[in-house]
Amino acid sequence: MANTGFIAAGSGANDASLGDVAWSNPTAILTDNGSRATSALAVGQSTQHLDSSSHGIAIPAGATIDGIVVRIQKQTGVASSTVKDVTVQLLKAGVATGDNKADTSTDWPNGDVDVDHGGAADLWGTTWTESDIEDSGFGVRVRAVNNHGSSSRTPKVDIVSIDVYYTEAGGAASPQRSLLGVGT
């Protein structure tokens, strides 16, 4: 099994179709440089969707997709933040598809931490082709909520990247049997 390595998005955008507060600076998720997409949440509010796309991932022709890992570098800058995932979902042609891999029980960290979702053998509850992965609409959708009882919180995302695991067409080579000495 081969993999692409983590590849950052080429595009970051806020999607206002759900949630309370828009993400500011959504294009900050393109590079790991300390500049962050942020969403200032009052008590009980959730972010709108933060969408990554145009990852520019290349998969060999005819390869079988085995699994997908999403890495999100996130933080709140506050200990005991009470900010939690609502949505971590893949986008297929720009549409949220498959399993939601949000960790709804763990607070976002105080400082920048790379948090992985999915796995080398995890297809997120759907099927994928090389063209799905190479499509500019392939990406990640992130949404968070402030569950603190009395204080505002600001979730922050520095970079979103994707690593795709695949098996090339034909798989592993089969051992060849020798026919030497056989026959007449």
Gist?
The protein is mostly beta strands and 184 residues long.
Describe the structure in your own words.
The chain has 184 residues and is mainly β. It has one domain (2-160): Jelly Rolls, CATH 2.60.120. It has one helix at residues 130-134, and strands at residues 2-3, 7-8, 11-15, 37-38, 49-53, 64-75, 83-92, 95-97, 113-119, 139-146, 156-167. A hairpin with a 2-residue loop joins strand 7 and strand 8 (95-97). 37% of the residues are buried.
Write the layout of secondary structure elements.
Blueprint: E1 2-3, E2 7-8, E3 11-15, E4 37-38, E5 49-53, E6 64-75, E7 83-92, E8 95-97, E9 113-119, H1 130-134, E10 139-146, E11 156-167
Antiparallel strand pairs: 1-11, 2-11, 3-5, 4-11, 5-10, 6-9, 6-11, 7-8, 7-10
List keywords for this structure.
single chain; 184 residues; mainly beta; Jelly Rolls; five-stranded antiparallel beta sheet; 1 helix; 37% strand; disordered C terminus
